[in-house]
Amino acid sequence: MNKKNFFNNTRLVHHLYDPWSHYGFINPPVFRGSTVLFTDAETMERGKQAYTYGIHGTPTTDVLCHAINDLEGAAKTVLVPSGLAGITVALLGTLFAGDHLLMIDTVYHPTRCFANNMLKNLGIEVEYYRPGAVLEKLLRSNTRVVFAESPGSNTFEMSDISAMVVAAHRIGALVMMDNTWATPLYFRPLDHGVDISIQAATKYLAGHSDVLLGTISANEKYAHLIDNAHRLLGMSVPGEDVYLTLRGLRTLNLRLEHQQKTALALARWLETCPEIDKVLYPALESSPGHQLWKRDFTGASAIFSIVLKKGGKREAYSFLDHLKLFGLGYSWGGFESLAVHVNLADRTVSRTDYPGPVLRLQIGIEDFHDLKEDIITALQSIR
Description:
The chain is α/β, with parallel strands linked by helices. It has helices at residues 8-14, 41-46, 59-72, 83-94, 109-121, 161-170, 183-186, 223-232, 239-250, 252-270, 290-296, 313-321, 368-380, and strands spanning 76-80, 100-104, 125-129, 143-149, 174-178, 196-200, 214-218, 276-280, 303-308, 327-328, 338-341, 358-362. The N and C termini lie far apart (59 Å).
């Protein structure tokens, strides 16, 4: 039986880990520790042993790395303490003083902060581009990395990743993508030519709001750079968090399917509400990026934004404060619904004038009708 041909649910249950590698237990053991003993002095001197020191990996971390390799179609995956660490380690491992970095303007805000501060201090030139920009006009002879996030943070604009890859590779630049929104179940960046795919496993992969973890997955060409950066920067993750992420992976497809169904139903209903100017969600037929999403993605995750027709901070706060089932929190991808008032002031080349505040909704696994009633109450508060 070829396990690579399994559908997602079967694959996540049966293809992540071989129970017979650890006496038949269906979940791997959690290895803790720093010191690893060597069989003899020569082996110790040459480092010819599968495990040499806790920071360089354990059997537990290897299980998750192999699982992510399989999901991403990657040659190498490393684990880091957070999604942001995934981005920073990948950038530090591939950029050098004098390089030019092209970064999408709708990027995750902490990524922008890192680029504007640490990368610029290291002598790396950072330039932002808007979604849909003609990349050929922006690429330079010293462009080393093109950083993509599709859909974009908070406003969910789509980018043509395949076209970006062609343009970047033509001049020898690599393409790096934050793929947390879609996960590899709904979009596999490396299949579209992306060189390095990054995920905040904190979100959908772990799925239960109790883990901080990031993954960096590279193709064969750039695997050594990611491996070197990971080792040189001393990154390691606790075995318990790895175990919890593996446990979350088992139900990833089930959770995404349910959350996507509820999110799409809520998004379509919200488009009909008189208080809403628009819903920013590429899975909607009304979205400007819908055709790109439909062409490249096999599904949509359950986070989108709504734009109120009028008002400002007062209306945004009233909406949020009247929600009972939606928690007010910055993360997403877990089992619970969340909401946040979006601040877009950091953008430089892709600013859009919206008539009212932008509110981001993360749809959890709760029932559609209960979430709908909760939103109705919040909308009534701003009428």
